[in-house]
Structures are given as C-alpha cells and as structure tokens.
Design brief:
Layout (H helix, E strand, L loop, with lengths): L9 E4 L3 H19 L8 E5 L1 H10 L4 H8 L24 E4 L2 H9 L6 H8 L1 E2 L5 H13 L12 E8 L5 E4 L9 H9 L8 E3 L2 E5 L12
Parallel strand pairs: 1-2, 2-5
Antiparallel strand pairs: 3-4, 5-6, 5-8, 7-8
Length: 222
Amino acid sequence: MTRRRVARSGLVLGAGGVLGSAWMIGAMRAVETETGRDLGSSDLVVGTSAGSVVAALLGLGIGIDVMANSERGLYEAGGPVLDYRDLGASLPPRPRMRMGSPRLLTASALHPRHASPMVTLAAILPQGRGKISAVGDLVAAAMDRKGLGLADWPVATALRIVAMNFDTGHRVLFGAPDAPRVTLPEAVMASCAIPGWYAPIESSGQRFVDGGTRSPTSVDLL
C-alpha cells in the first residue's frame, strides 16, 4: 500500500529594506484575505534581510494584521511598533577607510565560481559603522512579551534566518541544527547588516552580514 505524502508549506521572505518590509506585509495580508490561509502556521519560514524581521515576528506569533496595522500607525496594546526611524539617518555614518573583509576577498579570488559579484563587492566595500540595534531591540521586545528569554528560539514554526559569514562568504542558516549558536535578535541583526553601511554582527569569533549578499531570497533552501 502506497503511503500518501503529507503536503507541507513553506514561506520565503526576501530582502528589500524598509519599503520591502512594508510591501511584504501588505502582500501577505492580501494572500491571507484571499485564501483564508494563516501564513504564520507554515511548516517552514525562511527570512532574509528585511524578510528576517517579518519572519521572526511571525515565528513569535505576531499576526499579519497586527503588523499591517503597525505599518499604518495603528498600534495595539502590547503589539510591535514597526517604526524604523530609530535606525538612524537616511545616510550611513562615514565608513572606516579600510576594506570590509580582506579574508573574504581572498576566498573569492581562490574560489571564483563560488563567489558572486555581490559577495566580492561586499568584501571590497569599506567597513560600515552604522548600528542595527533597533531591529534587534524590536525582536527582543517581541520575545519578552511572549515570555521567551534571549537564548530561546521559537519552536511553533520552523524559523530560519539567512546571513553570510563575512570572512568565508558561506551562507549561514541560523536556526538550523548545524548553524552557529546566536540569539534570535543577533540573527536578525546579522541578516540585516548591509556591508559598507552597517557594522558586521560578531558572535563566537565570527562576523556576519546581510544574507541578501548571497541571495535576495534563498528560496533554494526549501
């Protein structure tokens, strides 16, 4: 007797900055309205850069309607405030006058087939000095409201946050069993740390930057 395969659903949320985040939330609200599906109940959610923020909030049980209302300036008691003005000025501070990652440039030169132009550019750009802590604070506050400690990781939905190791160029899938151990706020900050603009996020002797440097969506991971 042939066993029936159980259908599984995955949700991929990619890069796009502040505008991309608003667009994603609006699109997801339209999908839920038209299909009746609860996207937060997907079996796997993969978030990259701006998508990592939305993915993390989904994994913490914050619904699309709540996020959509927040984008419109309608805040519910205890809900997240998606106000990115705390990220600082529209232009980054003057970067440090040194190459972002000489080791990554060397790795790109030794293995050119494994390095995209975006990865090589990330290595050459000067070191960013901007701070992305406001994004981490947003996720940390959502975790606290759910009663989770910083060392906890949401388990209701399989949540994966994509970043790039800034010295090797390898894609890192935070939340996967073999990934480096970081907190969820650290993972989201790393996934959003645009090279040349924001400083890399350091953890356990490694540096991580925006996962969009490897792929805008990493949809292949599904």
